Amino acid sequence: MVNGEVHTLAVDPRATLLDTLRDRLGLTGAKKGCAHGSCGACTILVDGRRAVSCLMLAAACDGREITTIEGLATNGALHPVQQAFVDQDAFQCGYCTPGQIMSVAGLLAEGRARDDAAVRDELSGNICRCGAYPNILAAVRQVSGIEPTPAEIGADARLRDAAGGA
């Protein structure tokens, strides 16, 4: 089951879920970044939990529910995490954005967005080369209701200044 639709595929037992999603199903939202599970660009949800699809074998996903960035929105309306990323300008080049969004959606569903420190820890496997981290954290705050402490507000400002952004 991928994005609510049943797919029956004969797959090479060595095929990764990422390659199967991209090459066989045309779902190119999950990106191939490192192909080693280190960057998070290929993050999807498997049975509602975050997973890096470059390390999963497609054959091992038989009977599991897969959600990709393409399946996150419902009835043409952006998912709240997607909307928060737009509202908070939480992307620059956009390559990591689908994985970041899926990881945030997963951590929220898992109830792991307790505070800024927990969010930073939970998202540490998703790398943004552009340095949009303060805005990503702002997007998480928007959908989770986490309030930053004064120290965190100062840290966010220093990160934005160091990155040369607004």
The CATH architecture classification of the largest domain is Orthogonal Bundle
| Order of the strands making up the biggest sheet | 2-1-3
Mean pLDDT: 92
Helix percentage range: 25-40%
Biggest β-sheet strands, sense, barrel = 3 strands, antiparallel
Rg (C-alpha, Å):
16 Å
Overall domain count: 2
According to CATH, the homologous superfamily of the largest domain is: [2Fe-2S]-binding domain
What's the tally of helices?
Answer: 6
- Give the helices and strands as they follow along the chain: HEEEHHHHH
Distance between the termini: 41 Å
**CATH topology category name of the largest domain:** DNA polymerase, domain 1
Low-confidence stretches: none
Number of strands: 3
Q: SS-based structural class?
A: mainly alpha
Short description:
Helix content is 37%, strand content 6%.
